[in-house]
Specification:
mainly alpha; two-stranded antiparallel sheet; 9 helices; 74% helix; 2% strand
């Protein structure tokens, strides 16, 4: 039987795919509970005297420190590829930098764009784990993977829960425009350095790769279409929620006026 250490950097904490998903489902359940609770307390954090700054700067520092340790760990384990580790070549790594910037600068436009990005990269990464090899609790990589992707979602929703983002057609189209431009850059980078940023060259799901083994360009087109479709669906969902909240607010206001008459 394999001896398992309990330190955060013990390589014996590698798991096979089947065993790992026991950890995965439990972790996702805990994160969903945290997200539901956070949706209720986010406005209180925003309205408290120091809560907003503590949250934004605290999360930013956590993201910076975790990424520094991640790079050091990859280097120490002889698993460091500079072309894959650059922060602007992957969807989530790009969002990592973007999240730190808008949290520190309190940039509402970037936070709005991150709502759409978070629905693609981090959400899919949490649903379909792309960690190779798989590391179990309490390994550093386990915490780094789940914590980072969850924070991307949490940070963008913080601005949404506290009504600091204005979801509209103009912002959506602007986000779409820059996403397409950036995707072209990543695609060219993938070809030159033989990387797989944004999963544009191959899917993290092996079954899909087998289908498109001789038609990789078709896979790229379909994958990009899928991403843009998710963007649009998220936009429609946010508009629906915003309109529903507005109608509820108007109903309450009209009810108060009626009671005063």
């Amino acid at each position: 039987k394999k001896k398992r250490g309990r330190t955060m950097f013990n390589e014996s904490l590698k798991e096979n795919y089947t065993n790992y998903y026991i950890n995965h489902y439990l972790t996702i359940s805990i994160l969903l509970i945290i997200l539901i609770i956070f949706s209720k307390i986010a406005p209180k954090i925003k309205n408290s005297k120091y809560g907003d700054k503590i949250f934004r700067y605290g999360i930013s520092i956590l993201l910076v420190l975790s990424e520094v340790v991640f790079h050091i760990w990859r280097y120490k384990t002889n698993n460091y590829n500079i072309h894959e580790m650059l922060p602007f070549t992957g969807f989530c790594s790009m969002l990592h930098v973007l999240t730190i910037i808008y949290l520190v600068t309190n940039n509402k436009k970037l936070a709005t764009a991150s709502l759409y990005f978070s629905a693609i990269g981090p959400t899919l990464a949490l649903m379909f784990v792309n960690m190779n090899p798989f590391y179990a609790f309490p390994h550093f990589r386990f915490f780094h993977y789940y914590l980072a992707h969850f924070i991307y979602v949490l940070a963008s929703l913080y601005y949404y829960f506290t009504k600091q983002t204005n979801v509209n057609k103009k912002d959506f189209l602007l986000t779409l425009k820059y996403t397409l431009i950036y995707t072209v850059f990543v695609y060219i980078y993938n070809i030159v350095f033989k990387t797989n940023g944004f999963f544009l060259m191959s899917s993290p799901v092996m079954a899909i790769n087998k289908i498109f083994i001789k038609f990789k360009f078709i896979y790229t087109i379909l994958w990009l279409g899928f991403i843009l479709s998710i963007f649009y669906l998220v936009h429609l969902l946010l508009i629906f929620i915003s309109n529903k909240a507005l109608k509820k607010f108007e109903y309450i206001q009209n009810d108060k006026i009626y009671q005063r008459m």
